[in-house]
Specification:
The chain is built from 1 helix and 6 strands; from the N terminus they run βββββαβ. The radius of gyration is 12 Å and the shape is globular. It has one helix spanning 48-60; strands at 6-9, 18-21, 24-27, 29-31, 36-42, 67-74. A hairpin with a 2-residue loop joins β2 and β3 (24-27). It has 75 residues and is of the alpha+beta class. The longest helix is centred in the C-terminal third of the chain and has 13 residues, at 48-60. It has one domain (6-74). The strands form 2 sheets. Strands 1, 4, 5 and 6 form a 4-stranded mixed beta sheet that branches. It has a two-stranded antiparallel sheet with strand order 2-3.
Length: 75
């Protein structure tokens, strides 16, 4: 899934934002039972609110739980 202006996923200040899958760790995505968190770094070429809304819309179509998008930094 690609959203314009997203540079990369962000693992959080201490690397705490991650999901563990068989044989790999996905940083920047935190899957909870009742919430999904997406942490990103954006380029800043598009308004941050627009980028966050696009990320939310893309993820929300795939899951039934609430989605929170966190822009951790602007590159």
């Amino acid at each position: 899934m690609a959203v314009p202006d997203v540079v990369r996923l962000h693992a959080g200040r201490f690397g705490e934002v991650a999901t563990y899958l068989p044989a790999r760790r996905v940083t920047g995505i935190k899957l909870g039972e009742d919430l999904i968190e997406v942490h990103v770094v954006v380029a800043g070429q598009v308004p941050i609110r627009v980028t966050a809304q696009l990320i939310h819309a893309a993820v929300a179509t795939l899951v039934a739980t609430p989605v929170h998008v966190y822009v951790q930094d602007v590159a």
